[in-house]
Amino acid sequence: MIIVFVCTLPYPSYTARECPAKGSLAVPCTQASGKGFEPVEFSAPARVNLIGEHTDYTGGLVLPMAIPFRSIATIQPSDAGIYELSSENFPSTRTLQSTQGLVPVHEWSDYPVGVLRELLSLGVKPPPFRLHLRGNVPLGAGLSSSASIEVATALAILALADASLSPQAIALLCRRAENNFVGSPCGIMDQFVITAAQANHALLLNTRDLSCELLPMDQDRLAGTRIVIANSTVKHSIAGGEYGLRRREVEIGQSALRARFPELRDLGEATLEQLAVCQSKISPEAFRRCRHIISENGRVRAAREAMLVGDPIELGRLMTQSHISQRDDFECSVKEIDFLVEQALSLPGCFGARLTGGGFGGCTVNLVAVEDAERFAFTLKDAYRRRFLLEAPVYICEAVDGAVRQNASTRPDRR
Ligand code: GAF
Fold first, then answer.
1. Residue 174 and residue 219: Cα distance in Å, rounded?
2. Predicted TM-score (pTM) of this structure
3. Hey, what domains does the chain have and what are their CATH numbers?
4. Which atom of ligand 1 is least distant from the CA of 187?
């Protein structure tokens, strides 16, 4: 069976738009600690990155969009005076007698508890609560289930505490929770797009200064394409060692470049010529990792241009180049993912294909002509089953809005 998610929403105008990430996102809840408070729900999407991989921890560019899988956080005050966290996807409930001395216990609840701790450190004081999480984001698939949970949790706790923060501040807070509490060395891409995304747009983010731009997914011939995601079901984890190892290699290369070229703030500004000058100072691995990052930033800039003129051929070509760079230079692909990419590129209507997300498993993202998308999904799944005896769920996605309060009649203020 092909799992297909298609979300059809009206198309906005065909220009890049300023990204309103600095306005207030959380909806204050005035009945927060009073009797009769109805449980409120906050829903955060998953994300897929179109291009710009592993560039978000060295000041580079990323181009993700939000996709219609959701994490939903339901919150209500607790009469018992304790904090209770539960999840539909995991059997254990975590109970906190107080918010003092929170420590990780190395299971799912570290994500919401890490968010709670970061909110407390900003002076947000929620009353005791019951928080329940549910959702359908595939776990360990590189589609950002953890950031989705973090953002939904942050919005829910903010509402209960009658507080609000900008999407940007929420994204930064959730990343701190993941870096400092969960212990996973991720960048800012996932949390940012999950808070700030807008329907029918990809979000171009400069991870150095968090400036961003919304790029239409429906410009000219791009309107005749779909984003198709193929899940290898090979589990990916950024808390695992490989992601951190790659990050350290990149940072070693970045330090060598900055020592030689002090005007460079980070790899996001470096050129391949500057890297060549430093080649003898760094290991061959660090050189290749940095070559991926620097060339990938160039591909993201070119992808922006391709999107603005609605050129799926050029956008697809850049995506495929990105995959080759991840496979050969960054060495974060696996055989199942390479197979999915090779098969995809041999199928009618496919403009480009690549590994998306942290790597070492997870999903591919493909740009496919709309009239070929269903057949593409079917054929790709079939080829994967024959080769690996595994089912690869395939999702046909449109870009959706970032996190929202779900059961309110009004949308969060995004100005
Ligand atoms: C994971 C991380 F969480 C992101 O920050 C990013 O580095 C990505 O891998 C690779 O581009 O999703």
1. 32
2. 0.91
3. 40-214 (3.30.230.10)
4. 5
